[in-house]
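I hope you will forgive my troubling you with a question about protein structure. Could you please explain, in whatever detail you think fit, how the structure tokens follow from the sequence? Thank you for your consideration; the sequence and its tokens are set out here.
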Amino acid sequence: MVVVAPQHTTPAGSSPHTMQVTVAGSRVIRRLSGGELVCEALIAQGVATLFGYPGGAALPFYRQLDRYPELRHVLVRHEQNAAHAADGYARATGKVGVCVATSGPGATNLLTGLATAYMDCVPVVAITGQVAQAAIGTQAFQEVDVLAMVGPITKAAFQVRRAEDVPAIIAEAFRIAAEGRPGTVLVDLPKDVQMAVIDVEGERPLGVASSAPTVSAPSLPPDVRLALDQAIGLLRQSERPVLVAGHGVVIAEAAPALLAFAQKTSLPVATTLLGLGSFAEHHPRALGMVGMHGTVQANMALHHADLIIGVGMRFDDRVVGRPADFAPGARIVHVDVDPQSFGRVVRADVPVLADARAAFAYLLENVTLLSPTRWRAWHERLDRWRVGHARCGQTEDTSDPNAAPTSPEVIQALRRVTGGGATIVSDIGQHQMFVALHHGFSRSGQMLTSGGLGTMGYGLPAAMGVKTAEPGRQVWAVVGDGGFQMSAPELSTLAANGLAVKVLVVNNRCLGMVRQWQELFYDHVYSHSILPQPSFERLAAAHGVWSTTVERRADLEHALWEASMHPGPAVVDVRVPMEETVLPMIPAGASLDEIVCADPVDVRL
């Protein structure tokens, strides 16, 4: 950008208009406000959709947004949901999601959504209005120091001081959000910067195009190749290896390479919650999810392994259980793009600082084709755990057609109705774990949820972002009755924007996971976990959304079909037993082999 005139101040209440002047026959000089520069900078980054909520300190930007039909703005009903929708949009597309809010409470309402995206490595850029620079620090109306607040939950935060800096700062924000370990960036725009007018040279859109991160496998430095060679050596020596795929495999678009590597080596593969779908769960070598509510075979495999290769995962507390007793006989190879993840929770015997796609490319090229019988005894042992504990979570009689369906039945029915191809966006709680255990995912990025922060209310607005990005795909938000009440106003957003998100409420009339912990660990004292609720069917109708209620097992599949075939958004409220418990379960602070199951777990299998 070439600035050819000094900055002008626009009188309060006036609206600067774009003016083009041709100079010397070929040069185009335009007078643009800061708000217009933001719009054009976003277009230069390839942005097509924003999720936001206007307010006083953001109004100069919103005034100019109306002049840029290329930018679709989805008006949410709460700023937190704008961040969640941008998060869902980013996970669905692999692009940077964008959310907008005003100063003060608008900005602070974004924080939970930004923390959610930050914890799960989702690239989101948040744009916030701010009071005029002269008022900053005076405790002006709706003024907060949002940069100080977002420090721990963003990769970077900027406050723009001059209108001419807008294009470069926006470009830098997008670059930082997408590179390396993806995450969140905030750009704070004082009102006077949005209103300031400068003369610039160049055609529309004016901006600095930041280079998109490549998804091809880059060349690896010698030290990384050496570490991967060490991993290959350990693999050749091992008798009980396991590979664990995390969200990094999804982000790097490395699922095909993971499949090729697993097939070449006959390695058993487990996934983290956010890695579900990166390795198809119907594959004979798939172990399912690891961790607190992971499958028996996945957790027992990790506990008894002599080699664990973790790719694109954090080895967080919900995965490893009691760190001191995690995989006591195993060497651990940890592949990740974030060097700070190595050794943070458990030891990394071989840390590999690499993108999952690049690491798999090198491994595929350098690993010798292994015989399918290489680990026959280990595979047989894993299969015994799988078959022997297939009914670990089965605690209910499912034969009565007039009884309430169980949550696993609800999730399995959803898979049948959708053909297993829908994108599932889960909220947080028992239903989240039932989805992870009983749906079965076959493609990368098929399940979205809040993993690191565990944010209730995430499911519906994130599904809204996914449907905006992929209007032709089936998108189901699977929510609990608690989380649904936190974000139900977004039903109006679905209706107003014609977003045919289907909402499945797994309704146990309580805070299910809280109630489960109170039952198991807090003396059956159900303090404030039984949750009164409105009629969800009537609530949906008030928002103009079709809805139905299911109380009998016999009616479940038909209701899901009705919702699936309905042309617009729909809500299916399914009443499930309040007393359900998610099993298997590793109690907090326990080792992975200390599994609570409906049937006793025989570690000798």
